[in-house]
């Protein structure tokens, strides 16, 4: 005998409902991600963007790297402190 999980009725194993049927509501929401991780990802992406942009306009490799690293640090701190609504 198989018991239906929704209605509680018993079937004798015949018909299309010969197995357990579970009906659950699914709440689709993104996982909770720490603000430091999102700050790091934003800073990394925009820092690389600044570095690539600097190289594209003809800035030397060392200067472009320093601009990228400084912008990474500034963006990280800014997004970390002001990135979430309270």
- Could you spell the SSE succession in H and E letters? EEHH
Give the tally of β-strands: 2
The whole-number mean of residue pLDDT values reads 82
In the predicted model, the low-confidence regions spanning at least 5 consecutive residues are none
Q: Considering DSSP H and I runs of 4 or more, what fraction of the residues is helical?
A: 40-55%
Radius of gyration from the CA trace? 27 Å
Q: Structural class, from helix and strand content?
A: mainly alpha
Quaternary structure state of the chains depicted: single chain
Strand content: under 5%
Anisotropy-based shape: elongated
**Separate helix tally:** 2
Strand order of the largest sheet: 1-2
How many domains is the backbone divided into?
A: 1
User: CA-to-CA gap between the ends?
Assistant: 54 Å
Largest sheet: 2 strands, antiparallel
SSE order and pairing:
Blueprint: E1 2-3, E2 10-11, H1 35-56, H2 61-82
Antiparallel strand pairs: 1-2
Describe what this molecule looks like in 3D:
The protein has 86 residues and is mainly alpha-helical. The chain has one domain (2-25, 33-82). Helix content is 51%, strand content 5%. The protein contains 2 helices and 2 strands. It has helices at residues 35-56, 61-82, and strands at residues 2-3, 10-11. Strands 1-2 form a two-stranded antiparallel sheet. The longest helix is centred in the middle third of the chain and has 22 residues, at 35-56.
